[in-house]
Specification:
Helix content: under 10%
Number of helices: 3
Number of strands: 14
Shape: elongated
Structural class: mainly beta
Oligomer: single chain
Distance between the termini: 50 Å
Strand content: over 45%
């Protein structure tokens, strides 16, 4: 009789291990299709660098200051995968639309060699603080309960036309400098579209104008103060290629940070 009870308990344990509760063996099931996730993320791009002319070329020295922030928020709900009913349990995917905020505060100062104690400089500013929607690119979060892996696809670019016109305000001043005085000889301002704006690319992190990462669930940290809240912050990154063509320093002297958090609501 005692032996029969032991055998029955062994059978029950075997059945249990073949049900969804098997996720408890590796830390518990992370999510299910009824969950709703709130996502917040941002990317910052900052740098100070210059392009110096070749000796004797007569070309100017150009100084750059880059300061940009791309930020998004979204509410994500379960998205069934057609023809794969097991996805709801094993690797549910969640989808929503992001509201995007972009701030650009770029500056370029071009300084020519002096002639008779007088030199010319050109100051250029790119300025934008705009809100929009990632209208054509969904915000996606896939969580694999079995492999304990997650994948993000969070858009960072503003894709909806601004009803007030092109969003980037560009200003350009030509200045003559002599004995500490400045005389503005030309002052122009215009608005530019984002199609002329280059965002940085970082392989396996920033691609296709989105934060795209696939990584182990252990990669992210849990917010001790907020239940079911998780976040990730990158180390300092650099773009794959110079942010500004023909300016080598715009690669290693441009610093990028990426952050995202998602929590159940």
């Amino acid at each position: 009789m005692k032996r029969s009870i032991i055998m029955l308990m062994s059978l029950l344990n075997a059945v249990t291990l073949n049900t969804p509760s098997m996720y408890a063996q590796s830390g518990g099931q992370i999510t299910q299709k009824t969950d709703v996730w709130q996502v917040h993320y941002w990317v910052t791009v900052e740098g100070d660098f210059k392009k110096e002319p070749e000796l004797g070329s007569g070309d100017p020295t150009i100084y750059y200051h880059i300061k940009r922030r791309y930020e998004g928020t979204a509410t994500l709900r379960f998205l069934p995968i057609t023809g794969d009913p097991q996805s709801a349990i094993r690797y549910p995917q969640f989808k929503g639309g992001s509201k995007i905020f972009i701030s650009i505060k770029d500056f370029r100062n071009t300084i020519y060699d002096p002639i008779c104690e007088e030199f010319q400089s050109i100051e250029e500013y790119w300025d934008a603080d705009v809100y929009g929607f990632a209208q054509n690119t969904p915000t996606l979060l896939l969580i694999n309960n079995e492999k304990r892996v997650y994948k993000t696809s969070f858009p960072i670019l503003y894709t909806l036309s601004d009803p007030l016109g092109d969003p980037i305000v560009y200003s350009r001043k030509e200045i003559m400098n002599k004995n500490g005085t400045r005389k503005v000889t030309s002052d122009k301002t215009e608005r530019l579209p984002f199609s002329l704006h280059e965002y940085p690319k970082v392989t396996r992190i920033l691609e296709n104008a989105s934060i795209i990462r696939t990584h182990s669930w252990s990669d992210i940290k849990r917010d001790a103060a907020t239940p079911d809240s998780y976040y990730w912050l990158s180390e300092v990154l650099h773009p794959d290629e110079p942010l500004i063509p023909d300016v080598p320093e715009s690669k290693n002297k441009v610093n990028i940070r990426v952050f995202y958090e998602f929590k159940k609501i």
